[in-house]
Amino acid sequence: MQDSSTTQTISEGNDDAVAKPEVRKGVEVIADQVKRLPMGPGVYRMFDENGDVLYVGKARSLKKRVTSYTRLQGQSNRIMRMIMLTAAMEFVVTNTEAEALLLEANLIKRLRPRFNVLLRDDKSFPYILITGDHASPAITKHRGARKRKGDYFGPFASAGAVDRTINALQKAFLIRNCSDSYYENRSRPCLLFQIKRCSGPCTGEVDQEDYAGLVAEAKAFLSGRSQLVKKELAQQMEAASEALDFERAAICRDRLAALSHTQAHQGINPQTVEEADVFAIHQEGGQTCVQVFFFRTGQNWGNRAYFPKADKTLDETSILESFLAQFYDDKPAPRLLLLSDEIPEQSLLAEALSERAERKVEVLTPKRGEKKELTDHALTNAREALGRRLAESSSQARLLKGVAEAFELPAQPRRIEVYDNSHIMGTNAVGGMIVAGEEGFSKGQY
Q1: Which label site among 152, 189, 393, 432 has the fewest CB atoms less than 10 Å from its CB?
Q2: How many angstroms separate the first and last alpha carbons of the chain?
Q3: Can you tell me the distance from the alpha carbon of 37 to that of 54, in angstroms, rounded to the nearest whole number?
């Protein structure tokens, strides 16, 4: 995250404070640290008496921000609890406030402090990859680091969205999706060629020049030139029909239908937004939902709902601000972010994301036009997603209450673990565990 030449760690007195059982009162600990703090930007961490991180924050002026914690008057209950539990602090000085914002997001995701807003679902997003290291490129789903040579298109909101798009693109462009080893060992076309999902480059059913043309069309479609691709296909179909080559005309017709089907299932495809992520936040019943829509090359590549863990006293803008910094900690930001609510440090976030991307990133809260329609649509989805989650939580609470009553438990269970062990006549033993709790099944803890 940070170059060692641009940061400085300050931790005087921390080891003693954490090690000693007679930890000083929180305010006294903080007041003692203030004496040695600079006025510049940086990141601070608060620790409890066990050495666990309570909170990670960033500041334009470390001295001013930390000094504010020595005054208990006017503090919220959440901040008051945090101060009173503080037994030690550590600091990292940075060159700029934007640098501090990026470091703060990184530390929050890594340390997961109890008093910060926490992004629960941190799975990487899938991409479509058209390989570039083979004479006959393949189209495939990709996650993780972009080490393989080729063209990457995404992100998509889910693996399902990628699978559906690849399925439609195979029908439209007849590009192979087999592995290179499978390709090399073919002596006759596979089933995908028979059902018109592949043009069969492995056995020479299509020559390399024509196959390269199909690959170029697929790249053009995924790069936002879908109307041009459809226009060219329509012209090819008409030309084939006039030449009485009805078989060729039928192939073009089927490819056009596949492309139309793909776009029909993308929902909103904006006319004035080429590349953007759209965020909308909604709070209700003590829970928060952040809905994210991904638009690339003027096409809707899906959406995903997040339910960040946050103190109930935090307002929507504070949660959204912290969520955004963590969201882009390990993924590239698009050129435009559209938000349903204006956040306090919107310009700082844009500066930090631009610094990391090494190009301009805009963060806007639109008030009118198509961009406003996109955020309104995302907000509607956020409300509906949170409504479904609250309904599920209510049902889960009733189920847990029923478990407590059925087994005459002194209290309602908060976590249920189910184990299953299997073997083959005493060998090859394997065990599995699933977990359920107050919010339903916890798949991340299986």
Answers
A1: 432
A2: 30
A3: 20
Cβ 4 vs Cβ 75: under 8 Å = no
For residues 331, 332, 333, 335, the Cα torsion angle rounded to the nearest 10 degrees is -160
Q: Is residue 295 part of a domain?
A: yes
More confident site: 271 or 304: 304
DSSP, res 123: P
Could you tell me the two tokens for 80? 């008051």
| 85-123 per-position pLDDT tens digit | 998 899 999 999 999 999 999 999 999 999 999 987 666
Cβ atoms of residues 277 and 320 within 8 Å: no
| Domain boundary residue, one of 238, 264, 290 | 264
Compute the half-sphere exposure of residue 280: CA atoms within 13 Å on the CB side of its CA: 24
Residue 248: partners with Cβ closer than 8 Å, 6 or more residues away: 236, 240
Q: Say which residue the tokens 């956040």 belong to.
A: 343
Count of the separate structural domains present in the chain: 4
- Contacts of 192 by beta carbon, 8 Å cutoff, 6+ apart: 170, 176, 177, 178, 198
pLDDT tens, residue by residue, 22-72: 334 778 888 888 888 889 999 999 999 889 999 999 999 999 999 999 887
Residues 43 and 100: beta-carbon distance below 8 Å: yes
Nearest to 330 by CA among 125, 150, 43, 128: 125
3-state SS class at 324: helix
Expressed in percent and rounded to 5, the helix, strand and coil fractions of the chain are 45, 20, 35
What residue numbers bound the domain in which 419 lies?
Answer: 415-445
